[in-house]
Amino acid sequence: MNLTRHKLFPLFLIIGIFIIGISVIFKSPILSALGLDNKSENEYKILTKKDLRKIIKKGSGYSFITVNEAFIEFNKKNSLFMDARPKKDYNKLHIPGSFFAYPYSDTLNKRISLLNPSDPIIAYCFSKSCPLSENLAKHLVNRGFTNIKILKGGIKEWGLQEYPIEGFIEAYKQSN
């Protein structure tokens, strides 16, 4: 099927021209992405994944920590571990010494008000796809905390490394 003979082709063409026209008027980043803003190739800085990670970490107020790095901190007893999962999951199992810090808990602000905002904190949740530890980290940053790390892989990775866990371990094994 020839695209130019399609009934909607004129509509798509008009929409495309309109978007480019608006982009020219407002000097939109769309033009930059398409290379249509009259800048030479040398004027663009290519960002690497490492650059992007730095930008994200700088802007967020927290960083990430691997399970092995977190285990070193756990053994040194230098960092406070905060479990961002709901209370029922915390009660089933958690990293020894960690405290319940579900980001949507009514009592979280009262509990964190007792902490020093510069103390090192490691937040964790279920796994690497779980957003709860990042939500907790954002909440802590908004409350003035400055030394927050998120455990990559959460308690799932911690358990897979066979690091210490308190609670009913069978519940953990069944959930994986």
CATH architecture of the largest domain: 3-Layer(aba) Sandwich
CATH superfamily label of the largest domain:
Rhodanese-like domain
Provide the β-strand percentage band.
5-15%
Helix/strand order, N-terminal first:
HHHEHEHEEHEHEHEH
Shape: elongated
Number of domains: 2
Flag low-confidence runs.
39-44
| Strand order, sheet with most strands | 1-6-5-2-4
Radius of gyration: 24 Å
According to DSSP, the number of beta strands is 7
3D architecture notes:
The structure is a single chain. The protein is an alpha/beta fold and 176 residues long. The protein folds into two domains: 3-43, no CATH class; 49-175, 3-Layer(aba) Sandwich (Oxidized Rhodanese, domain 1), CATH 3.40.250. It is 47% helix and 12% strand. The chain is built from nine helices and seven strands, in the order αααβαβαββαβαβαβα. Strands 1-6-5-2-4 form a five-stranded parallel beta sheet. Strand 5, helix 7 (132-142) and strand 6 form a beta-alpha-beta unit.
Give the gist of this structure:
With about 180 residues, the chain is α/β, with parallel strands linked by helices.
Keywords:
176 residues, alpha/beta, Oxidized Rhodanese, domain 1, 2 domains, five-stranded parallel sheet, 47% helix
Q: Which helices and strands occur, and which strands form pairs?
A:
Blueprint: H1 9-26, H2 29-34, H3 49-60, E1 62-65, H4 67-76, E2 80-83, H5 87-92, E3 93-94, E4 99-100, H6 108-112, E5 121-124, H7 132-142, E6 148-151, H8 154-160, E7 166-167, H9 169-175
Parallel strand pairs: 1-6, 2-4, 2-5, 5-6
Antiparallel strand pairs: 3-7
